[in-house]
Amino acid sequence: MANNNKNAFAQKHAIVVGASTTGLIAAAALARHFAHVTVLERDTLPAEPEWRKGVPQSRHVHLLLRCGEEVISHYFPGLTDELAAAGGRRIDMAGDTRWFYAGGWKARFKSGITMHCQSKGFLEWAIRRRVEALGNVTIRDRAEIDTFTTAPGAVTGVRLKDGEEIAAGLVVDASGRNSKTPQRLAVLGFGTVEISELPVDVGYATRAYRIPPGTRDWQSLIVHPRYPDARIGVIIPVEGDRWLVTLVGWRGDQPPADDEGFLEFARGLSVPDIYDAIRDAEPLTQAGLHRFPGNLRRHYDRLATMPDGLVVIGDAACSFNPIYAQGMTQGATAARILDDCLERRAKRRNFDLAGFGPVFQREYAKFANRCWLISTTEEYRDPLVAPHPPLWTRFANWYLEQVHELSWSDRRAAKSFLEVMHLLRPPASLLAPALATRVLAHGLFARAH
């Protein structure tokens, strides 16, 4: 796919900081526009599909939502089929998933909205192999950034910890939630990045099990409580004929890692189905733990002194509560938006990147706003998280409760919710008149009874 647009930025070099799934997809997008792309990763990248230190959450369940699948298929045709052939699973969210949500089991039917299930390490490794095969991309590991190199009003490249300087026409920060870009920009005189935070203090425990013999009417199993209950459980099948089982808790109720505690936490979910599935299953790993402090937005779109030559994407710009499974998909979509913005500039035959950073960050922010809305609306319920929530959240949460209850029996409501969850349609689509009429009627009926 290298240099498909042969007129665009043909003599320029781009740098991607971070070889995460977001960074790798961004490298594939940039390879369409730049003569060469270098991906810089501070970790030692494993030769096999396995966990690595720089992605501590990678042991846990990661779902590739339908929107993310479409982006990956665009840049790496056939990759999702390869993942499935190697043991990953493509699962219909309504037909193959048994899903308890907020008090009831969601309707079962073939929705056509699929999620890809495989370990995070396997997915990242598969994408990295595809990126390495691109003729104009180089991936360098053990390459840690010290700071940016600059000219007046612009980032011109990076300086590594060992003193090496690498020039670039565009630097893309995909280094994750712990990105140091805000501090670097402040030190370099580019101002302070505005930050929005919504703390949740979510705790995860994940363990792999051998899939037990026998038949069951589901491939994945999800248990999500009704507020204020704070325990979630997920089982997904992954390569190697394994289940990944992730237990989640917040508001001070995090799952433990010991064998007995892990099972007891599962027993304490709203329904016993996950406990029943794993109590006699063969564990293949010890439980790994991870803590997620809260939702985080870095508003580069509002930075008046955003330098030329720099954009920030994925978790480095916006990190959302992982229980909503948006992380990989929003990062992949960010890469697609970056590609689209470069394409539009190229079509205008404007191959100078002056002013590109602010234009991209504003465009990306429109999509990030959707993700923020999905991941924070329910969390505004908790007075410890948001003592003074926006007034609109009271109606929004009531309305979503009715959508969920309606989706126990109404396939159209269930599919509409899945389309929003999978980032295929904006949250406002749940207010479409045909659905809103049924939702409000359900709410009034429930109140009357």
Blueprint (SSEs and pairs):
Elements: E1 13-17, H1 21-30, E2 36-40, E3 63-64, H2 66-75, H3 79-85, E4 89-92, E5 97-101, E6 104-105, E7 114-117, H4 120-132, E8 137-140, E9 145-151, E10 154-160, E11 165-167, E12 170-173, H5 181-187, E13 195-210, E14 220-224, E15 231-238, E16 242-249, H6 259-267, H7 273-278, E17 288-298, E18 310-312, E19 318-319, H8 327-347, H9 356-376, H10 392-406, H11 411-421, H12 433-448
Derived structural class: alpha/beta
By DSSP, the count of extended strands is 19
- The whole-number mean of residue pLDDT values reads 90
Q: Assembly state here?
A: single chain
Helix content bin: 25-40%
- Report low-confidence residues grouped into runs of 5 or more: none
| Beta-strand content | 15-25%
Strand order of the largest sheet: 6-5-14-15-16-13-17-19
Shape: globular
Major beta sheet, specifics? 8 strands, mixed
Span from first to last CA? 59 Å
Overall radius of gyration = 22 Å
Count of alpha and pi helical runs: 12
